[in-house]
Here is the input.
Amino acid sequence: MKINRYISSAIAVGGLLLLPVLESCRTEICYNHFPVADVSLSWEQEWERDYGMGHYAAWNKDFYGFEYGELRPPTPEWVSLVRYSKEGDVTSEKYFPSEGGELMLSPKYDDSFLLYNGDTEYIILTDLASLPDARATSTSRTRTSISYVMERHPDARSVNPPDILYSAYLGNLPDVKVHEKETVPVMMQPLVYTYLVRYEFEEGLDHVALARGALAGMAESVYLRDGRTSDRTNIILYDCDVKEYGCEAYVRSFGVPGFPDKYYGRTAPGEITGPYTLNLEVMLKNGKTTEFNFDISDQLKNQPRGGVITVGGISIKEEQAKPDPVESGFDVDLDTWGSGIDVDVPMNVEYTYGKDNK
Here is the structure.
């Protein structure tokens, strides 16, 4: 049985020789010869940035009627990751759930990546094919009754409040080796903030049936890569709730125009100009309408990214509230106020990219 011993020895020696080959990977036969980044997403759920007002530290729940944290935006459902080549061209797009996912890289990668949440309705994304120019704007909305605001801001476009929007930019990923996977933490930062707008009445609030407002002079768009806002302005149109003290609204905005946000690692400007105009239009129970306008430029100097805007001294006289002798009064249950005036225009902007859509 010497032959069997020789065969067994040959198999044993051959197995030792084959072991290193089996444990390694030959490039020409490997189908997963890539480094992998395990993108782990976290969310900076801020509704306003502190530029000197200190709202968080001084928040009074009894005065406002709710906790500071109740205005924090929610975590979006999913995220789009756009891959850019070294030349700045879009090569592919990938979708992640809100917690993140795996991203396969090329062995010698020098790509950069832009992430943003895509579950929006009143956001228009433009110029995504060019990384420096990729930005978000709001959908258009019209209201002809705000003539004073439109005269003061003649070049501004009237829009819906934007949806909650986050973004992150990855210019340099860690040096992940082939067949290795490394966790890459990514902080998604907000690009849309909230202004709590309070209209305080001195008298006549009981005559108000419906209310709506406008905030003019705010940034028309925001750049996804670095959080800076454009120089062009818009007029944000919104509805208000009638409270015991007056009218109230939660108004989302990109913030003031021409502003490089320091929370994105950029230097903020020394002065915030204007003008910024706040409008309130109310429909009284007798069916008549009246409006009030305020210059709020001073209030936005320390609130370029969300905050609290308060105006007061609003008064509706009894003479204004008297019903027309011919009319029977206004039915507060009707929802036709502004019918044919406000037009929501959701828009989708598409772009093309390479066929590598992994």
Q: What stands out?
A: Residues 2-23 form the longest helix (22 residues). The first strand starts at residue 36 and ends at 43. The chain is about 10% helix and 35% strand. Residues 126 and 335 are 34 Å apart (CA to CA).
